[in-house]
Write a structure and sequence with these properties.
single chain, about 160 residues
């Protein structure tokens, strides 16, 4: 009995042909296959970068939640614990130097600012339903500029530059 399914080969199931006997040699990679090195060479649009940073800032806030709870507890418990809180930024916490405490706090500041601003951007896009590619690009640039600018201003305060 002849094969009427239009496929050749017997290795596949449900009528799929065996790649080795499909009648042609493969010289290129499958279009859907992407390696990490390929992904690193891909240039995302600004809106894509903001979207990924929005997710990253959410993850960062989640991971630093124990640090935030500790800061909140130590800063409000009592006057001696508040002194411990301020000493963490002047002398560090145990073996962790003060600059690293400030750097982690700065990362948390950026995460909160970026996540909040990008969230407002998403709410605005959802509410207006009139976002063009240019509006998306412009709002992404504004989101990045605001989050980085406000972070730099607060960095100056955190590191005592003003």
């Amino acid at each position: 009995m002849a094969d009427t399914s239009g496929t050749s080969g017997t290795a596949g199931t449900m009528g799929r042909p065996d790649r080795a006997t499909a009648g042609h040699a493969r010289t290129t990679a499958r279009p859907g296959t992407m390696r990490l090195i390929d992904a690193l060479g891909y240039r995302l649009p600004v809106a894509g970068v903001v979207s990924i940073l929005h997710r990253a800032s959410g993850v960062l806030m989640f991971l630093l939640l124990p640090f935030v709870v500790w800061l909140f507890d130590v800063s409000l418990s009592s006057e001696p614990s508040y002194d411990r809180f301020t000493a963490a930024y002047a002398a560090g916490i145990g073996a962790i130097p003060a600059w690293l405490v400030k750097l982690v706090t700065l990362a948390l500041i950026w995460a909160y600012l970026h996540h909040a601003i990008a969230g407002v951007r998403h709410l605005w896009m959802d509410a207006t339903h009139s976002v063009t590619l240019e509006q998306g690009r412009t709002s992404a640039i504004v989101t990045l500029a605001l989050s980085i600018g406000l972070t730099l201003i607060l960095m100056g305060k955190l590191f005592g530059w003003y």
